[in-house]
Design a protein that fits this description.
The protein has 296 residues and is of the alpha/beta class. It has 13 helices and eight strands.
């Protein structure tokens, strides 16, 4: 598992390091031109402007004061950005209910499959709720992952109310004393009011099936969409209480700097990153490995 985050950052690192390696290796003191070049490189990697300010403001002065050099000073600043990842709460009285949300095609269903397989490997039993009732193919895709993870899928007819599917799944899991339910949802644009209300409804209805549920609400963000991920996260968090994030497709992008913006500006912890399409390609997010992978 070790090294997967670092490997997935190859493209981002190459884009960044190509531009900044001369800056870091220069023995001359950093000046305005150096800082501008760093700023450009971070912008290219899709770190947002407020975060770039947080990283670079008075950085040369700090580097001189500590004598650590510009690269180390930047590394320290990056390490200071991450919100603490709260440990998953203790086992609830009943199944752990996990709701997965996000815009279209970000990797929700794939991430659910990977998480279900990881839970199975720990000896847990659970259900997957086919809350994407919008596309027939979505249920089939979930069923393929469910088979691999040895879980059953709770589904209803195409076009059914996703909140009803989620309610059924949570009730069924509680009745059978299972360990977990993971609820898939259809992709939705954060600006579509009705679909966002539907998500709020799923969240409410699940709480009626089992008080305290959902215990985890994860927004899946596609790292390749860059800064748009920030506005997605802001609007989703207005509708459902996000507990954490999964950043997918870190392997496919030179814009992996988005994780820094998410950390600095949203204060919602990244719990996992997706580094490929296979079942093992979901790893716990490790800020130190991420920062080292970026600055190499
Ligand atoms: N390279 C890479 N591909 C990924 C990752 N996660 C998901 N994918 C791919 O992204 C595509 C979309 O994944 P899905 O899981 O169907 O995404 P979704 O959010 O469920 O999509 P909708 O249900 O249509 O909104 C698939 O081809 C996945 O294999 C990842 O971490 N890395
Ligand atoms: Mg899906």
């Amino acid at each position: 598992m070790f090294g997967k985050i670092r490997d997935s950052l190859r493209k981002t690192r190459e884009a960044l390091v190509e531009k900044v390696s001369s800056i870091f290796s220069s023995t001359a003191e950093a000046d305005d031109t150096t800082i501008e070049a760093l700023e450009d490189a971070l912008l290219q990697a899709d770190v947002g402007v407020p975060t770039i300010h947080a990283l670079l403001d008075r950085l040369p002065k700090e580097a001189r004061a500590t004598g650590a050099g510009l690269k180390e000073a930047l590394r320290q600043r990056m390490m200071g950005l991450w919100p603490a990842v709260p440990p998953p709460e203790g086992p609830p009285p009943g199944p752990w209910v996990h709701l997965m949300v996000g815009v279209n095609g970000v990797g929700k269903t794939t991430t659910i499959g990977k998480l279900a397989a990881q839970r199975k490997a720990k000896g847990q039993k659970g259900l997957l709720a086919a809350g994407d009732t919008f596309r027939a193919a979505a249920v089939e895709q979930l069923e393929i992952w469910a088979q691999r993870a040895g879980c059953e899928v709770i589904r209803q007819a195409e076009g059914a109310d996703p909140a009803a599917v989620a309610f059924d799944a949570v009730q069924a899991a509680a009745a059978r004393s299972l360990d977990f339910v993971i609820i898939d949802t259809a992709g939705r644009l954060q600006v579509k009011h009705n679909l966002m209300e539907e998500l709020a409804k799923i969240n409410r209805v699940v709480g009626r099936a089992l008080p305290g549920a959902p215990h985890q609400v994860t927004l899946v963000l596609d790292a390749t969409t860059g800064q748009n991920g920030l506005s997605q996260a802001r609007l989703f968090t207005e509708k459902v209480p996000l507990t954490d994030l999964v950043l997918t497709k870190l392997d496919g992008t030179a814009k992996g700097g988005i994780a820094l913006s998410v950390a600095a500006e949203l204060r919602v912890p990244i719990r996992y990153v997706g580094v490929g399409e296979k079942v093992d390609d979901l790893v716990p997010f490790d800020p130190a490995e991420y920062v080292d992978g970026l600055l190499a």
